[in-house]
Amino acid sequence: MEEISFYCTPEQAHDDEYLKSIIAKKRKKSGAFEFKWHKRSIDARKKNIKVRCSFHVYKSSEPIPETYKPKFKKLDPSKKIHIIGLGPAGIFAALTALEKGLKPIVYERGKAVKDRIKDIGKLNRKGIVDPNSNYCFGEGGAGTYSDGKLYTRSKKRGAVRQVLETFVHFGANEDILVEAHPHIGTNKLPRIVSAMTAKIVEMGGEIHFEHRLTDFTIEKDKINSITLNGNKTIATENLVLATGHSARDIFELLHSKGVQLKAKPFALGVRVEHSQKFIDQAQYHGRVNDDYVPPASYRLVTQAGDKGVYSFCMCPGGIIAPCATSDNEVVTNGWSPSKRNNPYANSGIVVSIEPSDLKNPENPFCGIEFQKQIEHKAWELAGKNQKVPAQRLEDFIKSKKSEDFPRSSYQPGIESIEMDDLFPKFITERLRSAFIDFNEKIPGFITNDAVIHAPESRTSSPILIPREKDTYRHVTIKNLFPCAEGAGYAGGIVSAAIDGINCVHAVN
Question: Is residue 70 part of a domain?
Answer without folding.
Answer: no
